Each structure stands twice: as structure tokens, then as C-alpha cells.
Amino acid sequence: MVVISLGGSIVSRNGVDIDYVKKFRNFMRTCHVPLYVVVGGGELARNYINYARTLQMNEYTLDEIGIMATRLNAKLLITEDTYPEIPETISEAIFAGRTYKNVVMGGTEPGHTTDGVSLLLAEKLGEKKVINMTSVGGIYDRDPRKFSDAKLVPQMSYDEAKSLFFSEKMDAGLNIPLDLLAIKIAERSNIALYIVSKDLENVRKVINDEDFEGTVIGKFDA
Ligand code: UTP
């Protein structure tokens, strides 16, 4: 089986990208391995969190709202051969995966993001690979949205990813498309994290251990 973290902004940006949702559902149906897909909240989560913030709701409640958005996005990806509910815990997801080919979920509890969920799920399953699909499609030596000559970094160690996380935190826009929990869980269980774009042919290559476009974070010498 394969664990995929599908970045929320791939699904939800200027409304829902329904054409992509259809493509992804088809990919799930035709993929030769069982899939666990953890979907992010994207614009839907951001909008609702911002509304709630103007109502002075606390951070825990904002996270709960974010989780609801991730689950709403996840609901769109349930196909005929997918567990018909959205699991609310990692254990429920694992149980569901024993009966159904595919399982789709969103967040679990406040305090982290769906990237963290995907790593915890892989850890519990004993999987050594997580595919993280993001709008940017990898880690670059500088922000590819601002610099046209930004270069893709094909491999990165856990330590490098952690230091990038902390240095990026200083800037306004976070450039590393992962939360710290995700990197730490990956490191402690030696799970390789493949950061790729929404290109589904490329995702198939990662699943088949073929050459792919993106960044792998793993046990490399810094
Ligand atoms: P995302 O996983 O989409 O977070 O969850 P993100 O990194 O902010 O957004 P992407 O990667 O661009 O899609 C959306 C929000 O839901 C809450 C958090 O508030 C998060 O920011 N959340 C999500 C949780 O509190 N717990 C979870 O397990 C998942």
C-alpha cells in the first residue's frame, strides 16, 4: 500500500478544481496498489479559519475548523472501492484499509497538519515511503514563485529539512511544504518523503520506484 498526502491547495484553490478531482478519482480506481490518501484543507480551510479568527475564536477551535475543511475535501475523493466514511483516527483508517482498497481521510486532531497525519499513518502501517503532493512540486534552493532560476533540490537529509524549516519560519511565506512533526516522524522511523507536484504520471513513477521529478527527504549525508 502507499500513503499519499494530497496538498489541500491542489484540490481547493479558487473553489474546487473539479477536473483534477475527477482525474484523481480515476487515478485511485486504476492504481495497482491500495492507497491511503490524506487530503489537506487548502483555500476552504484558510477561508473558514480566517472567518473564525475575526470572531476571536481560539487556536484550538481554528484547528478544529481546519480539520472539518480537510474532511469536506476528502469526501469528494471517495470512490466505489473506497471506505465510505472519513476515518477520524489513524486506527480507524487502518481498520478500513483491511476491508477496502482505498481509504481517504483528512486531519485527526488539533496541533498539526495533514502532512503530520500522513507520516503517523505510514509509521503505524510500517510503510517506508510517503508521497507528498504539493502545488510547488518539490523543494527549491529558493522560492520558485519569485525566482525563475530557482533549482530543484533532488535529495535532502532530515537535518537539512529541519534547518530549512526553521530558517524559512523567519520569512513570511513558508517555502518548505511540510510541518515539523512530519519531518520528525519521518526521521525517527526512517520514512522517505517524496515531495512531488500534482502530476499523477509522476506519482505513478514514485510508486513504481522509477526516476521521478521532485525532492526526496531521507537518510542522506548532509
Ligand atoms: P492542512 O493539512 O491543509 O494544513 O490543514 P496546511 O499546511 O495549513 O495547508 P496546505 O498544506 O496548504 O493544504 C488545514 C488546517 O487544519 C488544521 C490546521 O489548522 C491546518 O492548518 N488541522 C489539520 C489540524 O489541526 N489537525 C490535523 O490533523 C489536520
Plain-language structure description:
The chain has 222 residues and is of the alpha/beta class. The protein has a domain at 2-127: Acetylglutamate kinase-like (Carbamate kinase), CATH 3.40.1160. It is 43% helix and 14% strand. The protein is built from nine helices and seven strands; from the N terminus they run βααβαααβαββααβαβ. It has helices at 8-11, 18-30, 42-54, 59-75, 90-97, 114-125, 158-169, 180-188, 200-207, and strands at 2-6, 35-39, 102-105, 129-133, 155-157, 192-196, 215-218. Strands 3-2-1-4-6-7-5 form a seven-stranded mixed beta sheet, sandwiched between helices. α6 (114-125) packs parallel to α8 and α7 packs antiparallel against α8. The longest helix is centred in the N-terminal third of the chain and has 17 residues, at 59-75. The radius of gyration is 17 Å and the shape is globular. It starts with a strand and ends with a strand. Uridine 5'-triphosphate binds at residues 7-9, 40-42, 45, 62-63, 66-67, 70, 107-110, 112-114, 117.
